[in-house]
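Provenance and format

Records in this collection were gathered into a single text stream. Each protein contributes a sequence line and a token line. The two records reproduced below are adjacent in the stream.
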Amino acid sequence: MSANTERWPFEPGVHQVLELLLANMQAVLRDEFIGLYLSGSLACGDFDPHTSDIDFLVVTRDELSAAQLAAVDGLHQRLLESSPQWGGELEGSYISLGAIRRHQRPPAAHPHLERGCGQLRVEPHDSDWIIHRYIIRNQGVTLAGPPPEQLIDPITPTELKQAVRDLLFGWWEPMLKDPARLVHLGYRYYAVQTMCRTLYTLEFGRLVSKPVAAQWAKTELGGRWAPLIEESFTWPRVERSTSFDETLELIRYTLDYYRSC
């Protein structure tokens, strides 16, 4: 089966690595393979070839055995070697039919591939996977397999707001005390755009692309944040001396916004 990428304006290299991923995945997993889906920026329509990764989900019939995990791990190592530009940008998870339907608490562990790693690790899938499920079910790109709404239960606005709340306090609030990640300019811009989308989701209970959320934020939050938001979408990256402190302030603003809801 060929990857169903013709409908979407992917970069040629992205097309190629997805075709290779699907063909090799089906060869390795055989009857265990159910479907391959794209999440993240490729699904939301805000993919940036300079900064974005390739978020994917593979749904399997059952939990993968140790031998199957080793085979899939080898597949990703080969993709990393043969397609270094885009093979290294793959980031995704392998979740069974029984587990993908709804988020489990406490979080269940599933095989996961980290961007730039090329090696699978079995690790807990936290509240961010409520957001991934929402994107895949509502906006996801189906490269092979049944429609994702047949596999994933609907996610309510309340559940989505709770997921972004968990990320806000579990991931972003600690950066106010230890902002080492924000020293990297690309991560700083990612933080700014994520805060825009978090604010939008808290307000409306749904998820939109980062550009849509950013445009809303520039209009609704007043002129204070507009230069920083606009800067986060510039390329090549031009850093202002104040952007580090402003990013921290925007994170504080988003936390305060949630507390006031």
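Adjacent record:
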Amino acid sequence: MTRIEIAIIPGDGIGLEIMECCTNVLDALQDRYSDFQLSYNKIEAGAQYFKKTGFDISDQSFVELRRADAILLGAIRLPSIRHNDGTEIAPHLRIRTELDLYAGLRPIKFYPNIPITLADPRTKNIDIIIVRESTEGLFASLGKSVIENDKVARETMEITRNVCERLFDATFVLARKRKGQGGKGLVTCVDKANVFPAMAFFRKIFNERAKLNPDITVNYRYVDAAALELVKCPWDFDVMVMENMFGDILSDLGAGIIGSMGFAPCGEIGDMHGLFQPAHGSAPDIAGQNKANPIAMFVSAGMMLDWLGEKKKIIGCSLAAADLVNTIEKLFLERKILPFEVGGNDSTTGISEKIIQCLK
């Protein structure tokens, strides 16, 4: 049996609730397999921790994050707690940079029998993954912004060959894996190469890596056109790769077209480390009310298990990941769960209990 250490960061707001439910679901999953055992190391970080200590995360916590086999995060930030410059507390952005988590995987998949946002019935066929570069782009300015005499503010976009090559290579591997499972085998490069030389450089490197992957079809969209088509014909896309800020915006748009942010999981992947979290915020308006939709948290945990299965060659982890995702889809298909967030009556704990019961 392989022991796997998971660093868990519940964070703020609903993060605490969905994390507790998530570890309960993970415990039910590992009871079914004998080749891995999860242990949890709870780490404090986020807005409440900042309010208490003056730090968003401790140096010792970074040591523990580097040591862990994977990181599972609930939600971070509270609008009422901010730095002096007006920005919110966001240690997870620094975690991405310091652990070199350059590929942010944002699945956008429609679940059966939830209210349809788009009128077109083809909405049910939406199955996209946005690959968001997560360490540079416009976010490279974090901590380096310049404000001159309260009159001018400047941020600088950074695109590097080193990060882009690894990002695109990971994107093509993902597209090939999906193609083997019945996917389109299509990668769309999203940029603004018609205006910004940095984006033209981004596309140039994409083309170089595409030539090394001739079995995958490629196409291109400027970011504004991609936003339009994600509303008009999202079912045409497969894998989309883009700069950090573009990915931040379009992945939230993607969550909107499938129902809500509560269905938006995320995996932040690097060569050595992986962090997994729902893409939504801490939702302080419903915190403590048992109303949060935990599906994105659970699917993020499934992504973590799948990544661990591949990375550590643990078959049980891969099987557990598939079990979790299939169970969630089955419960939606059979109309047995519907979160408050989309008009249902199932609470956070109620959804987790139904999933656990189904797994047993």
